[in-house]
Amino acid sequence: MKILVPVKRVASLDDEFELRDDGRDVDPDFCEFDLNEFDEYALETAVLIKEAAPEGTVEVVVLTIGPDDADDTLRKALAKGADRAIRVDDADLGDADRVAIARIIAKVAEQEEPGLVLCGAQSSDFGHAQTGMSVAALLGWPRVAVVSRLDYAPGAASATVERELEGGLVERIEVETPAVLTIQLGINTPRYASLRAIKQANAKAIESRTPTDLGLSTGEIGGAGALSRVRRVYVPERGKSEMIEGTPSQQAARLLEIIEEVQG
Amino acid sequence: MIPSGIAPTEVTRILFQDFSLWMLLAFYAYAITAMAVFAFGVYVQVRKYRSGQRGAAFSWRQLATRLADTAKVIASHRALRRRDARTGRLHAFIFYGFTLLFIGTATITLQEDILGPLLGVNFWHGQFYLLFKLVLNLAGAGFIAGLTYMMYRRGWLRPPKLDYARPDRTPEDADFSRERYRIEDWAFLWTLLLIGITGFLLSGARMVWLQAEPAVWETRWWAPFGALVAAGLKAIGMSSEGAGALRMGLWWFHGVLALTFVALIPYTKAKHIVTAATSWLLKDPNALNHLPLGNLDADHIGYRTLGDVSSRYLVQADACTKCGRCHEACPARAAGYPLSPRDVILTLREQANALLGEVLPKPRAAACATPLVGLATGEFRPDTLWSCRQCGACTEICPVGVEHLPLINLLRRDMVDQGNMDSALQRTLGAIGKTGNCFNESRRKRPQWTRDLPLKIKDARKEPVEVLWFVGDYASFDPRSQKVSRAFARILHAAGIDFGILYEGETTAGNDVRRVGEEGLFQQLAEGNVETLSGCTFSRIVTTDPHSFNTLKNEYPDLGGSYQVSHASAYLKELLDAGRIAPARQLDFTVTYHDPCHLGRLNKGYDAPREVVAATGAKLVELPRSRDNSFCCGAGGGRVWVPDPPGTSKVSEIRAREAAEIEGLDVLVVNCPKCMTMLEDAVKTTGNERNFRVMELTELLAEALEADAVAPAAAPAEVG
Ligand code: SF4
Ligand code: SF4
Predict the structure, then answer these.
(1) Measured between CB atoms, does B526 come within 8 Å of chain A?
(2) Percent helix, strand, coil in chain A (nearest 5)?
(3) Sign of the CA dihedral B571, B576, B582, B586?
(4) Does position B717 have pLDDT exceeding 80, yes or no?
(5) Alpha-carbon dihedral angle through residues B473, B476, B481, B485, given to the nearest 10 degrees
(6) Helix B126-152 to helix B224-235 angle, to the nearest 10 degrees?
(7) How far from chain centre, in Å, is Cα B121?
(8) Counts of helices then strands in chain A (DSSP H, E)
(9) Where are chain B's structural domains?
């Protein structure tokens, strides 16, 4: 039995940063990159299931989509207990949105035939919380979002999950497998990947695939396969106000100045 | 002198005088059995030690130096006299008494069983015999005096360090009780004492028995204590025949007891006679400041199972005499954490004895595969290992060379590798891995503390400098320590020093990352810094941070970076001596100085900081625990990143209270950014904020250097 855990390499910003020249994202020079925190919980959930099962019966496969910079993220996942890592890359992926990414994940899921797909509830940089749900929709599998507890015996026909609702309510759901679950923070305590383990994970091969390998056409991936497009990323200007003081004629003069400034 | 009319050859002791053949046979049979039991015991112990991992072999030269050093330490009892001079001296009595008596017995055996029968060489008579008697009599008296004092100490003085209460266990735990050790301690003392006393009684009884022989009676005062016993026996009316019977009884009692003692040496605490010396011989001279380089490519790192432990530590485990010096010195123990370094080493001993030290060999492989850390009986508890500050107080004071500090570190390495640690610590390590600093700040922010300076510090990556200042994490990011960094920069600038820093090119030196046990991350950080430094031109490194100082100086050479590294305090002392800086005024504060572990105990940097204090004119009053006995601020070993559990008193607060005892104290001088963080906090939480200030040595000096400084270091005025 396999568990597929799609992971994302997320960016965190410096206090001071600059935007990319096209104004559609932050200049990566000003970012530190790391494995998405939500995905760490999803991965830990998968590894715990593996460890509770007889040895060799559960395989945890991590998957990421992006250029080879993302290998670090996969190595960290391998160090934390994943068995295999897959990276899908293509030059045309640049403008992919969540749905375009989900299409790739879904294809990998079709190939790998996991019993569960465990995603992080959202990414810590963009926070759309859409990828996991899109994967489920594309596969036509049952799905539960923002899972805070999971009971699953590998190979069972269903899993029991809990979600936290408002007012301290807990919703318990039985879901048929294979299913896609998105995992909430705090479901467990992700383990530390020591540097030694990460280094040793360097020795493990990362399987690299292209969308073509997966049977996806250029029209289905990247910007062409996306349903949305980022127009602009910006820091909104702070509202300005000024108390105009002085004699009425001075005030009038200042007012004129401002009008001219704004009209520019 | 031999009285006239007695042939010197008659002045001797006839061994086995009046023994029948069966007695002789019985005695030799017992003696040979005892030797066999002894030899087997030695074999069992050596087999146990050999189950451990072997370290690098010594060269002959190293061996010679180590042997000489070991002999010196034993002969002088230097290590045993520290912080407990009387006990050390009386142990010397026992030691020298025992050694001389042992040599005496060996001499007799040599004469009687080897040289005499084989070569016909006989020397044990005449003047030599009389001197021999005198020496052994005095030795015996010292031996008994020493033992009696030890009994008095255990029975009446009862120092707390000899109460074996385990802070790492509760009475419900199967391995809580130390009763067996207590019984063994007393049995050991009584056995030796009885051997000593019966020796004198025997000597006296023999004199009375042979009182008719002038060769015995006339020379009796050469054995003064024996002669006193003889006088006593005669005074109570003992006849020659009665004394003969007494002598026979005592002879057997004394002989059998002594042989039994020898036979049991390898099985009891008596083995410290051998193991303590061996442990000292094998100990790592740099155990305090240099941790062993871990192999990241092995299938695991550090100590996971009993079979991973090096033979050296197994010998050390048997060398420990439970003297409690480490227990007394440990700051974690003092603050109520579940750690005593003595119990750490005893846990190893007990586990090794139970699994590897059995008389009947057990399957080695299974024993070696036994996990070391866990909650089961006989295992090291994770809490215990995480309580350690890696301050070295234990290892430094141990009179038999036990190295608790690296042992604990090696045990932690595997725990880190398995993620068996506090989540706060995990987050910090994660942050360091990502950003290169423990504040989880972006690399770009590292040099921001220089912004408010009226001078521009050179970028050592871009231009050659004389002094490369390695700033370190706390001195770069912690707002309080940033002030100190700026003060240091101004001093260097005023002295006209050509210095520079690495700006955002610096990452944390990794000293504490290594002490936590994250060896892989440490090596990565160190390799990164070594690479950065290799691109710079400088002649020496100076740092205000003792932690960075320690690892740069002692551990970076293993990773390809050998530099001349000085701590700021030593460097400032140099500048003062060279006249490049001169105090403009004398401070009239009463100050005390807290030795940071990493500068003091670990690197023996005790004097330079005190000389800098003296140069400021401040009056230095030493803390009760200072220099090698300094009491850790509690930050070491990564504990600065782990919140203290509620209910425990903080190590730093104990230290702050200690300082508060000093009358008229104005300033508690620290010399490390982490000590600053811990102690400034503790001074507040112990309510001493208004009584005295915490200042770094650099700041104190800066104040003395400024001619126009205004405010004296009075406590801040009461507010509201
Ligand atoms: S290093 Fe310090 S804290 Fe750790 S056991 Fe030794 S004395 Fe205690
Ligand atoms: S380890 Fe050393 S200092 Fe500690 S009790 Fe044993 S002999 Fe004494």
Answers:
(1) no
(2) 35, 25, 40
(3) positive
(4) no
(5) 130
(6) 80
(7) 47
(8) 7, 12
(9) 61-165+177-279, 298-421, 425-718
Please indicate whether residue B636, judged by its CB atom, sits closer than 6 Å to ligand 1.
no
- In tens, the pLDDT along B31-72 reads 999 999 999 999 999 999 999 999 888 899 999 999 999 999
User: What's the whole-number mean pLDDT along residues B177-195?
Assistant: 96
Going by C-alpha positions, the residue among B376, B387, B317 that lies closest to residue B346 is B317
Query: Is A197 at the interface with chain B, CB within 8 A?
Result: yes
**A195·B520 Cβ contact <8 A:** yes
Domain extent, residue A81, equals 2-235
Q: How many residue pairs bridge chain A and chain B with CB atoms within 8 Å of each other? A: 48
Q: Is B426 in Cβ contact with A195 (below 8 Å)? A: no
Least confident of A80-94, B60-74, B190-204, B374-388: A80-94
- What are the residues facing A63 on neighbouring strands? A6, A86
- Rounded Cα distance between B395 and B151, Å, is 27
* A-chain residues near B416 (CB < 8 A): 192, 194
A243 located within any domain: no
In a domain, A251, yes or no: no
Q: Amino acid identity, residue B548? A: S
Distance B476 CA to ligand 1 centre (A): 28
The CATH number for A91's domain is 3.40.50.620
Comparing C-alpha atoms, which of A72, A86, A85 is closest to residue A198?
A: A72
Q: Does B504 touch chain A (CB under 8 A)?
A: no
Q: Which two tokens stand for residue A122?
A: 């959202």
Scanning the structure block, which residue is given the tokens 């990362």? A206
Q: Is A204 on the interface with B (CB under 8 A)?
A: no
Query: Over the stretch B458-505, which tens digit does the pLDDT of each residue have?
Result: 999 999 999 999 999 999 999 999 999 999 999 999 999 999 999 999
Q: How far apart are CA B370 and CA B308, in angstroms?
A: 10
A32–B contact, CB cutoff 8 A: yes
The vertex-B129 CA angle with B127 and B132, nearest 5°, equals: 110
Q: What is the ipTM of this complex?
A: 0.80
Pick the CATH number of B298-421 from 2.60.120, 1.10.1060, 3.30.1450, 1.10.1240: 1.10.1060
Tell me the whole-structure pTM to 2 decimals. Answer: 0.91
Check residue B670 and give its pLDDT: 97
B407 Cα to the center of ligand 1, angstroms: 11
Q: Whose CA is nearest to atom 7 of ligand 2?
A: B320
Mean of all residue pLDDT scores within chain B: 94
Residue with CA at minimum distance from ligand 1 atom 7? B330
Residue in this structure with the two tokens 């091969």, named with its chain if needed: A205
For the sheet with A158-164, list strands across it.
A149-151, A158-164, A170-176
Taking an 8 Å cut-off on Cβ atoms, the answer to whether A32 and B301 are in contact is no
- The CA distance from B171 to the nearest CA of chain A, in Å, is 32
Does A147 fall in a domain?
A: yes
State chain B's maximal CA–CA distance in angstroms.
100
Task: Give me B648's structure tokens.
Answer: 């425990």
Backbone φ and ψ of B232, nearest 5°: -65, -45
In chain A, the number of structural domains is: 1
